Every structure is written in C-alpha cells, then in structure tokens.
Amino acid sequence: MRTNHDVWVVVPCYNEAPVVRQVLAGLLEHFPNVVAVDDGSRDASASEIRKSGARLVQHPINMGAGAAMQTGIDFALHDPGTAYVVTFDADGQHRVEDAVAMVERARESGVQVVIGSRFLGASSVGMSAGRRMLLKAATVFERATSGIALTDAHQGLRVFDRSFAEVLEMKTADMAWASEFLQRMSEVGASFEEFPVTVAYTDYSRAKGQRSVNSINIGVDVLVNRILRGHR
Amino acid sequence: MQWVKVPLILFAVLALVALFRNRQRVELRAGSRILAIVLAAAAIASIADPGIMQRAAELLGVGRGTDLLLYILVVVFTLTSLGLYFRIRESDQRVRKLARALAIERALREEGDDPELAPVDSTEPRRVQPPGE
Fold first, then answer.
1. How far A228 CA lies from chain B's nearest CA (Å)?
2. Residue B111 to residues A77, A86, B106, B114: CA-CA distances in angstroms?
3. How many domains are contained in chain B?
4. Which of B44, B48, B83, B100 is the most buried (most CB within 10 A)?
C-alpha cells in the first residue's frame, strides 16, 4: 500500500457545507495531502473545511469551478514533492476508492492523464436517461472540437502528473473548464487513459449539479474560447 | 444591388478578423481612436449642415441619409460591443489571477510553509514607533 505522499487532491467547493467535511474526511483516510478551494461560498463551507483537517485556500470572491480548480492546482504545484494531482468533486458523488485506483493506474501505466468515465463498465447510480444522452452528445462535441475521443468528457474525477499540471494553465473560469482541460491535452499531446468509475447521484448532488440547459452555455463558451485561444 | 453593401460586408468581415487576430496591437488601438475622431468630426459636420448626410447617402447609393446613419450605427455598435467584450474578458482574467495569488499566498502564510511568507513574530518588540511620540 502506497502512502500517496506525492499526491495532492484538489477539491473545488462552492456552498457545499452540508457534505464537504465528510467528503474531505474520506479523502484524508487515503491521501495525506488534500486541498479544498472554497470559491467564495456564502455558507459555512470554509469552517467545515478547516474542521476536516484539509488545507483551505479561500477565494475572496466567487470565480467559478474552473478558476477554483486552477487555484487548487497552483497550490499543489507549490509543493516540490507533488508528482500527481487528483481533482475530486466536493458534493460526494465520487468514490475515494476510484481516486486511489486511478492514481495507482497512473503510476503503473505512466500516462500523463487518467480520466474517470461513467460509461466504461462500472454503473452510475441514479443517472437519468436524459442526462445519459446529453453526456453522450457532449463526448461527440468534444471529439469534434478537441480531437480527443473519450467515452465520458465531462467528469470531475481526473488524475494527472506534474508535467501536465504545469502546462495546464486553465483560463476558463466556469464549468467549461472540463472542455479546456481536454483541449490543453490535445494541444500538448498528453498521453491519457480512461478509467471506469462509479458516480453516485444522490438527491444532494442532483440538486447541486449542473442543469442540463447549461450545456448550451458551456458549448458556446468552448467555441468562443477555442477561437480566441492562441492569439493572445 | 446597392453598392454600399459590398464595402459594408467587407468591412464587417475584415474588422472581425482583425479584431480576433490582433486585438493587442497598438495599430488597432490607434485605428479605433482615429475612427472615433473621424466619426465625431462627421457628426459635428452633419449637425452644422444636415444636407451632408443625404448627399453622402446618394453618393454611396443608399438613398436616404437616415439609412446611412443606421448602417454606420450598426457597424460602430458591433465594433464597440466586441471591443468591450474582449476587454471585460481580459479584465476578468486579471481579477482571477489576482484573487488566486492572494488566496494561495494567504493559505501558505497561514501554515507557515513558505519561509518568505511566514507570519511576523508578534513576540518580537516593535521597532516602529507610533506617530506622535
């Protein structure tokens, strides 16, 4: 059993006070380094994070999930011993076992990025048929815009090594970060693998989760970012 | 076919491409300032002599001066909106970088990880005298 001292788990958090402490406690059992980025929550998220024993980085203003993710990655890179970064959702939809297995897989295979997929064998509890179709459509969209073919493009559980974390530099502040992530992978030619994960859609995560109509916003943002990127 | 459409369409397409590609260039900013000055001058001239607009419209084949005004307005509005959109995007990006740097620095200072950012030792006697003593 490895100690995972060279791994930082990044947990972006926005108004997740009811669950975040439990999620972080679960992570801390397997990962000594966990950083939760409180993205200007209006509830008690920050104090819940402090109580959990995880490191807290607190945005002074709300900036979006992508911005919080990048802050966590920057923080993790401050530790010279960091070899792997794991991104993990604060709402409790991911399983810690999956994160552990994905880090193991990254070490074994040596690929730069391991992305969790809800559509590779392992079942996802409580996913609606509409959501399933939307996510399928999203993979087609991602394939067309970034050229990276995945079975599940919008999934928060990802493991990547230091070399990729250093060049990632996400500019997208909102939920479209997942697309920019793939685009950066394609731009730098990162090696990657998918890994089957199970996602538990609880009433809490469903209530907190993305509304499907937001995929239109994400799609348009991705296209705009795609046109603008590279001409800075 | 009104020939004013050709330069208008061309101008719109070229301006969009130019904006997308060179939005950081000094030339572009200089160009937008010159355009603003020219438009302001034209506006003043058309107040002094309202017939100018009509004559310019006939010259371009638009027909009515008010139509020409509308076309110019559409072009200027599009350029202004795009310019503001880019500027807000970049400004947001800067705010995010600033807030991120602040958040990370504060987190590191809290735990005393980074010696350069370590909290000031409060037991050390203060050397700075308060004003008035």
1. 7
2. 16, 22, 9, 8
3. 1
4. B100
Its pTM stands at 0.75
Identify which of A158, A153, A178, A78 has the alpha carbon closest to the alpha carbon of residue A113: A158
Quickly list DSSP for A80-148: TT--EEEE--TTS-S-HHHHHHHHHHHHHH--SEEEEETTSSS--BT--HHHHHHHHHHHHHHHHHH--
Q: Give contacts of B102 with chain A, Cβ < 8 Å.
A: 60
Task: Determine the Cα–Cα distance for residues B69 and A133; give it in Å rounded to an integer.
Answer: 49
pLDDT at B72: 87
> What is the C-alpha to C-alpha distance for residues A34 and A57, in angstroms, rounded to an integer?
11
Residue type, A65: A
Tokens (6 digits) for A196: 């089957």
Domain that holds residue B30: 5-79
Give the span between the Cα atoms of B83 and A107, in whole angstroms.
46
Q: Is B109 contained in some domain?
A: no
Facing residues of A34 across strands? A9
Look up residue A88 and give its two tokens: 């993990």
Q: Is residue B35 part of a domain?
A: yes
Are A59 and B108 an interchain contact pair (Cβ–Cβ within 8 Å)?
A: no
Q: Which two three-digit tokens encode residue B70? A: 């509308």
Going by the DSSP 8-state scheme, the letter that residue B117 receives in this structure is G
What is the rounded average pLDDT of the residues B94-118?
80
Class of domain A7-228: alpha beta
Structure tokens at A202: 């609880």
Q: How far apart are CA A216 and CA A212, in angstroms?
A: 8
Confidence of residue B119 (pLDDT cuts 50, 70, 90): very low
DSSP 8-state class, residue B112: T
E strand or H helix at A11, and its extent? strand A7-13
* Nearest in space to A58 (alpha carbons), one of A40, A74, A42: A40
Dihedral-angle region of residue A111 (phi above 0 means left; psi in -120 to 50 means alpha; beta otherwise): beta
Mutate to test the interface with B, among A8, A35, A57 (most CBs of B within 10 A): A57
Q: Domain for residue B12, yes or no?
A: yes
Residue B44 belongs to some domain of the structure: yes
Chain A residues in contact with B24 (beta carbon < 8 A): 232
Which residues on B lie below 8 Å from A41 (Cβ)?
none
